Amino acid sequence: MITVNVEKCRGCGLCAAICHEQCIVLAGRDNGAVARIDHALCSTCTQCIAICPRRALSWDHAESIAYDDSRLPTPGELAELFKQRRTIRRFQPRAIDRTLVEEIIGFGIYAPTNNYALRAIVVDDPTIIKTFEAVIMRFVRWMYTLFYHSDIVFRVVSALTPAVDAKGKVKMERGLARGRVSETLPAAVVFVVGDRRILMSEASAQYALYNMILYAQARGIGSRINAGGPITLDRSRAARRRLGLERQEHILATLELGYPAVRFRNKVEGKTMPIAWKGQSIDA
């Protein structure tokens, strides 16, 4: 909850002006107006905390800290981080300290979001991770039998949807052959859960995941987004019970964490996203 220190507030109105929920007003008192928050309307976006020049607003009375621009990474440092990020599919059989996992997850809350009621559930018990892998593998076998096993069915379905293709068939067959989705099991699996009825909940969870991914990389921890979690485990009553999900909660995103068992050495150069400009050229 966002709180206001009325002794520090001088009623400048910057917080009220930036509030997109219109939940902050300036209310009078003996020595001047101060910010008042209608928490029923507040989405806890925290922009008001970030803009206050006197640091009079805070999160649960934890005083904010002024930005230190000298600590910002340079464009070159960011480019190095982005280009070094690779999905890790082979992990060392080594546990991650829970304090470090909590630190990584903590940066998910700073991502852009439309759902402010997300929470994380962490599974770091190898037995439970193997149980969840088995649930996902049952779904993979069902999908393979239904759409891929018969050549006739595969040709028909692949002609109708790009989601079913030869590449996916090969990956499924390899996974079925080794008996698990992952090449090696991760040390921990993070489930970001929330209410799907809130607009853009899935997108918000993915934003949070990417913050975690980049910070994990900076701490030497590899990661892999597991798309099977939201698709399969969320539909499993046993998995939902094991995770302790509330009735309205759903698995929105799943992230595997672990110490990498592989070492990537090279940055990929020349890879670009196609860009189409629409509008009048400056030279026109």
Explain the overall architecture.
- This protein is an alpha+beta fold.
- It has 10 helices and 8 strands.
- Strand 2 (24-27) and strand 3 (34-37) form a beta hairpin.
- The protein is globular and about 80 Å long.
Radius of gyration: 24 Å
Overall number of strands: 8
What ranges have pLDDT less than 50 throughout 5 or more consecutive residues?
none
SSE string, helices as H and strands as E: EHEEHEHHEHHHEHEHHE
Tally of distinct domains: 3
What percent of the residues sit in helical stretches (DSSP H or I)? 25-40%
Q: Biggest sheet, in brief? A: 4 strands, antiparallel
Shape: globular
Q: CATH topology of the largest domain, anyone?
A: NADH Oxidase
Summarize, please.
With 284 residues, this protein is of the alpha+beta class. Helix content is 37%, strand content 14%.
Q: Which terms would index this structure?
A:
284 residues, alpha+beta, Alpha-Beta Plaits, NADH Oxidase, 3 domains, four-stranded antiparallel beta sheet, 10 helices, globular
Secondary structure layout:
Layout: E1 2-4, H1 14-18, E2 24-27, E3 34-37, H2 47-51, E4 57-59, H3 75-84, H4 98-106, E5 119-123, H5 126-148, H6 151-160, H7 166-178, E6 188-195, H8 201-218, E7 222-225, H9 228-232, H10 237-243, E8 249-258
Antiparallel strand pairs: 1-4, 2-3, 5-6, 6-8, 7-8
Helix pairs in contact: 4-8, 5-7
